[in-house]
Design a protein that fits this description.
69% of the residues lie in helices and 1% in strands. By secondary structure, it is mainly alpha-helical. The chain has one domain. The chain is globular and about 55 Å long.
């Protein structure tokens, strides 16, 4: 759902002009460059989610495919952890710091416009089915804590999880940068303990959908970003084994306490590690299918598609089968081209103007900066 940005790693020898050039680069926005295959993974993830919703609301009868909706969301979470951490690490390497203000502004331009347009439309269409606190929870990105939200807000739980992650993780990595891996490892193993406690105490309130429940997926994506440069190339055989885990894991039935504990402490961590391994594998080996233009286009509009598919694919009042994907795609394309892209272009223009202002030094200022 998000892009990754790479920084210029060039180094220059110390003299007046190169020193000034370094200052200029440190204030410039990081250039856009998409990582191969990840849009293809997004396309697969959103397809799994949509098929799951079509089956859940009886628009399709393929029950086997309907079991993979959660897997699609988990892949999105791992990708988000990986991409956001990659972005933060590149900024730290480039500037020796992390600008929380810049990060939050960029995220706001990326996430809020498309989401607010969707929310405005559905609130107008379905306001009779809502209470003010449902709308407030949706706009404040705490819908994951609203267990009684209307169906049209049903999918917002995952976007709320991601937004809460975007709010907390950049602050944590900036504050405790040296301990980032230790923090993530703790989160990865504390999350199943938290889930086990919820299961043991039969908690059915908002905690059952809170960020700690899904922190493992995000944490493993973050860890992947940290350790990917040092990890060996993943072989095709290993990738095939990881794929088998992804395919088979949704069919494990945790219907007893012992099976639930096995799911939480063995199968789920193995699943998350497999997702992370496959993410790294398809980056290392960019398969043609994942980088085929129709597939990457679907991945690029996946955020808007995730927003709008709920209105059609999870609507019990509609009985049009797989045809419901078409209006969802149409709305997503409109959102992507008329809302997402213009706002991202505006964001980049504002960043460029800010960069020009920061680097417009007088000769005296330049000398002072070069001597520091």
């Amino acid at each position: 759902m998000c892009n990754v940005y790479y920084a210029d790693k060039n180094r220059t020898k110390s003299s007046f002009k190169p020193q000034l050039a370094i200052v200029r680069r440190s204030n410039e926005p990081v250039s856009d460059r998409r990582i191969p295959s990840l849009d293809g993974l997004r396309a697969i993830s959103i397809t799994l989610v949509i098929l799951s919703h079509l089956v859940q609301w009886r628009h399709l009868s393929m029950r086997v495919i309907g079991s993979y909706g959660s897997l699609g969301v988990f892949i999105f979470f791992v990708l988000s952890g990986y991409l956001i951490t990659n972005l933060l690490l590149r900024e730290q390497e480039r500037t020796s710091s992390i600008s929380l203000r810049t990060f939050y502004i960029r995220r706001a331009f990326r996430i809020f416009p498309a989401a607010f347009v969707f929310l405005a439309v559905v609130v107008i269409l379905y306001w009779r089915q809502m209470r003010w606190y449902h709308v407030a929870a949706a706009f404040l990105y705490v819908a994951n804590m609203d267990r009684w939200r209307p169906w049209v807000f049903g999918h917002l739980w995952s976007l709320s999880i991601e937004e809460q992650f975007y709010l907390l993780w950049p602050f944590a990595i900036k504050r405790w940068f040296r301990h980032k891996a230790a923090i993530l490892l703790c989160v990865f193993w504390v999350s199943p303990i938290f889930q086990a406690a919820i299961y043991a105490f039969r908690v059915h309130n908002g905690l059952a959908g809170s960020l700690p429940v899904y922190a493992s997926e995000l944490a493993i994506g973050c860890l992947l970003a940290i350790f990917a440069p040092t990890l060996p190339k993943i072989s095709g055989r290993a990738a095939l084994g990881m794929t088998a885990i992804l395919i088979l894991s949704p069919f494990f039935d945790a219907n007893t306490p012992s099976r639930t504990l096995f799911l939480l402490f063995v199968l789920s961590p193995l699943l998350h590690l497999s997702i992370a391994g496959l993410v790294l594998h398809v980056i290392q080996v960019p398969y043609r299918f994942l980088n085929w233009s129709p597939v990457t286009w679907l991945g690029k509009i996946s955020y808007s598609l995730y927003l709008w598919q709920e209105l059609f694919c999870s609507n019990a009042a509609l009985h049009r089968g797989s045809v419901l994907v078409l209006p969802a795609l149409a709305c997503a394309a409109l959102s992507y081209y008329l809302v997402e892209q213009p706002m991202l272009r505006l964001r980049d223009r504002m960043a460029q103007r800010s960069s020009v202002k920061k680097t417009a030094f007088t000769p005296a200022q330049a000398l002072t900066t070069a001597g520091e």
